[in-house]
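Postdoc handover notes: sequence design on the structure in folder B. Input tokens:
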């Protein structure tokens, strides 16, 4: 746990230093000269996650995302979503769902490397075992605070690839991910 807190503090210090450097590197403009104004729609970007798995284990995941570029290097956004899971294994079957929202911010140190902070508030079905064969299910919101960073590389005019590593620094007792291990994401993005 101390290692994770140390990594989180290192990311926070790096983010603070990078923010301070951004202002010092920005070219000074004549205060009476205005640059070309871009439409506000150019500051929004969209994306998300769609996951489908069928078979003994069935999963449907829908997490649309909208982001806003606050500055050329700093952006923030929202990602509401829903997951459905059903599994049948050796005569046992069950299904559950979860839903919630993710609020994130991202700061680009250089165009390919970014720092990422994300607060998730997800409603899960929490299983409480009564004995070896019986359990109860209750719904409960579980908070997460992910800190980390990633690399992204543009592949074409409207496509890119990314690799991201995040750590949950809250480690809530009801989290389905209580191991303290990092979360790795690898994906592709396509803009329209």
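Designed sequence:
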């Amino acid at each position: 746990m101390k290692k994770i807190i140390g990594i989180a503090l290192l990311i926070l210090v790096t983010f603070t230093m990078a923010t301070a450097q951004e202002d010092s590197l920005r070219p000074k403009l004549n205060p009476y000269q205005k640059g070309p104004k871009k439409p506000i729609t150019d500051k929004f970007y969209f994306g998300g996650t769609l996951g489908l798995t069928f078979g003994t284990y069935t999963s449907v995941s829908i997490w649309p995302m909208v982001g806003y570029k606050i500055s050329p290097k700093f952006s923030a956004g929202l990602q509401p979503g829903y997951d459905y899971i059903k599994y049948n294994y050796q005569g046992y079957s069950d299904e559950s769902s979860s839903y919630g929202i993710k609020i994130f911010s991202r700061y680009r140190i250089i165009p390919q490397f970014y720092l990422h902070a994300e607060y998730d508030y997800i409603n899960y079905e929490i299983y409480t075992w009564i004995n070896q064969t019986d359990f109860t299910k209750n719904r409960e919101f579980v908070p997460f605070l992910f800190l980390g960073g990633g690399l992204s590389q543009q592949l074409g005019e409207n496509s890119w690839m990314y690799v991201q590593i995040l750590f949950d620094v809250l480690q809530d007792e009801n989290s389905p991910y209580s191991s303290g291990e990092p979360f790795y994401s690898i994906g592709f993005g396509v803009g329209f």
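Context for whoever picks this up: Residues 2-190 form a domain with the Porin fold (CATH 2.40.160). Don't rerun without checking with the PI first.
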